[in-house]
């Protein structure tokens, strides 16, 4: 699925102008499994996949998993079967050298400890690289409520996202 998403992003960048879009203003966001995929895409070597190195201008990841190793230590390992190579390839934390854009990392304070830990570790790594626009932990929000913040233009998530996009 990640390879399909990469091909889609390269296609979008190559064709967005035909639809009135600006290839220099492509942003990516995701929540939960979508944040995992977005994290992998945001740490992609786009030149190796036929795109410009700076194909994505910024990202918003909410309540995702950015390193699959701890996940594979959980009960999920009994039904999710991936090789060590796949685990490494699908863990954004293992490809931080490919980050070419700023990101916002969000989670709720009522999420599981692992979701909170993964967000904090990913955000800290991005901050150390000068690539973290905002790190937000939403008070009173669980895993499923976090993306609702985008419905409110006055929310910290919406404001940070718009600020990132305005540059």
User: What spatial order of strands do you see in the largest sheet?
Assistant: 1-2-3-4
Percent of residues in beta strands?
Answer: 5-15%
Helix content: 25-40%
Number of E-type strands? 4
H/E element string? HEHEHHEHEH
Name of the CATH first level? Alpha Beta
Full CATH superfamily name: Alpha/Beta hydrolase fold, catalytic domain
Question: What does the largest sheet look like?
Answer: 4 strands, parallel
Structural class: alpha/beta
Indicate the radius of gyration in whole angstroms: 16 Å
- Gross geometry: globular
Number of domain units: 1
Arithmetic mean of pLDDT: 95
Can you count the helices?
6
Poorly predicted spans: none
CATH architecture: 3-Layer(aba) Sandwich
| CATH structural fold name | Rossmann fold
CA-CA gap between termini: 31 Å
Main attributes?
Rossmann fold; 37% helix; alpha/beta; 167 residues
Structure summarized in a few sentences:
The protein has 167 residues and is α/β, with parallel strands linked by helices. The protein is built from 6 helices and 4 strands, in the order H-E-H-E-H-H-E-H-E-H. A 4-stranded parallel beta sheet has the order 1-2-3-4, sandwiched between helices.
Layout: helices, strands, pairs:
Layout: H1 2-15, E1 27-31, H2 33-42, E2 58-62, H3 68-72, H4 84-89, E3 102-108, H5 113-128, E4 132-138, H6 156-166
Parallel strand pairs: 1-2, 2-3, 3-4
Task: Explain how this protein is built.
By secondary structure, this protein is of the alpha/beta class. It has 6 helices and 4 strands. 37% of the residues lie in helices and 14% in strands. Strands 1-2-3-4 form a 4-stranded parallel β-sheet, sandwiched between helices. The radius of gyration is 16 Å and the shape is globular. The two termini are 31 Å apart.
